[in-house]
Design goal:
About 65% of the residues lie in helices and about 0% in strands. The chain is an all-alpha fold and about 140 residues long. About 10% of the residues are buried. It has a domain of about 90 residues.
């Protein structure tokens, strides 16, 4: 079976400005706005926890994970911009996929940086003699 795409010219009653403006009056758009708000709050909470963990550990893997979660915070921002008519749909898709690539790259870099730290000779090696039960060095 072959599928063919046909281009249908807009009808005379099609209003491009109305199609490009935000539609917060509709019920589904209000649901979408609510989901974006919940997503933004959740992402910010997780990002704040990651910032706290990074400030405590101050290591490259924690920095990379914090940056990935910071990029995750940007996703609902892009969605809200699209819902409000600030970000055009084409830019929305491009930015969302770009953020996906950035998040994936940062997480992979974090995984590989941990592996590089683990395989380095005597780099941060912890033994029962120099570490307590929480994994921090004794003074």
């Amino acid at each position: 079976m072959i599928f063919r795409a046909t281009i249908v010219p807009p009808s005379a009653d099609f209003d491009l400005r109305a199609a490009a403006t935000p539609h917060l009056a509709g019920g589904s758009d209000l649901h979408l706005a609510g989901l974006l708000a919940v997503s933004a709050v959740g992402s910010l909470v997780v990002f704040a926890l990651a910032v706290g963990a990074f400030r405590r550990r101050r290591s490259l893997p924690y920095l990379l994970i914090t940056a990935a979660l910071g990029a995750l915070v940007m996703r609902p921002v892009v969605g809200a911009g699209t819902l409000l008519g600030v970000v055009p749909m084409w830019h929305h898709h491009f930015l969302e996929h770009l953020l996906d690539v950035v998040i994936a790259a940062l997480l992979l870099a974090a995984v590989f940086s941990v592996r590089a730290l683990d395989t380095a000779p005597d780099a941060g090696a912890r033994t029962p003699e120099n570490a307590d039960s929480r994994g921090t060095e004794n003074e």
